[in-house]
Amino acid sequence: MFSQLASAFRILLVLTILTGLIYPAVVTGIAQTVFPTQAHGSLVSVGGRVVGSSLIGQGFARPEYFHPRPSSAGGGYDASASGGSNLGPTSARLMNGTTRKDDKGREVADFDGIKDRIVHYCLDNGIAYESSVPLDAFKGADGALDDAKLIAAFNDEKAPLVFTAKAPIPADAVTASASGLDPHVSPANAEIQVARVANARGATEDAVRAIVAQWTERAWLGFIGEPRVNVLELNIALDQKLPRK
């Protein structure tokens, strides 16, 4: 019995050293030598300061930048709370959004919903649309659209707001990824945003489009995955090559 226990203990000790110390050390050493950037999280630096990771999406809202996919990670783009909305395609909450009352009793947007995102995407990028009710009816005192009013109108059971874009909207422009941290947008999404970005930077659309093309990643090996554009890296390139005038 004791000889069996001794053999088992020796095997445990050898495997612990092999798989718990030697193997991780070798793999870490190879990674640090062959793939140093990836091993450190694919961090992106500008002027010696880390501004993000090429693997993790972050929010951009200003007109001179390309905007990422919507995010359901925490309060949005929260790398510590990666996740999707877990809502299915038949979910009224996913399509119409929901509201809640804040601590002052005001109605505010709780979950924006795809229809609300389509409205903002059309307005941000100059896409023609039809609306059953003029959007001015949903503006707040500051003149900006009130998302809570829009969401309430979409959820109106008697006469719901009908808003239709007159051009195809890329799915990734109004839906979040499963992780909520997708750093890429589709080339179609980026193309629609070109005019807005060019106008905000005082540049030509062709100049912006050329930079987009430079940062468009092709399918791996030509057939694995889809073409995509890394939003963070694209926006950094824009600041370097086409700073806002």
What does this structure look like?
With 245 residues, the protein is an alpha+beta fold. It folds into three domains: 2-38; 42-62 and 176-241, no CATH class; 88-171, no CATH class. It has helices at residues 2-34, 36-39, 92-96, 113-125, 147-154, 171-174, 187-201, 205-214, 231-241; strands at residues 43-46, 49-53, 98-101, 107-111, 129-131, 163-165, 184-185, 216-217, 228-230. The strands form four sheets. A three-stranded antiparallel β-sheet has the order 7-9-8. Strands 1-2 form a two-stranded antiparallel sheet. It has a two-stranded antiparallel ribbon with strand order 3-4. Strand 3 (98-101) and strand 4 (107-111) form a beta hairpin. Helix 7 (187-201) crosses helix 8. It is extended, with a radius of gyration of 24 Å. The relative contact order is 0.13.
Please indicate the count of domains: 3
Q: Helical content, roughly?
A: 40-55%
Number of distinct beta strands: 9
Largest sheet: 3 strands, antiparallel
Number of helices: 9
Return residue spans where pLDDT drops below 50 for at least 5 consecutive residues.
none
Order of helices and strands: HHEEHEEHEHEHEHHEEH
Task: Compute the CA-based radius of gyration.
Answer: 24 Å
Tell me the structural class.
alpha+beta
Overall average pLDDT: 91
Distance between the termini: 82 Å
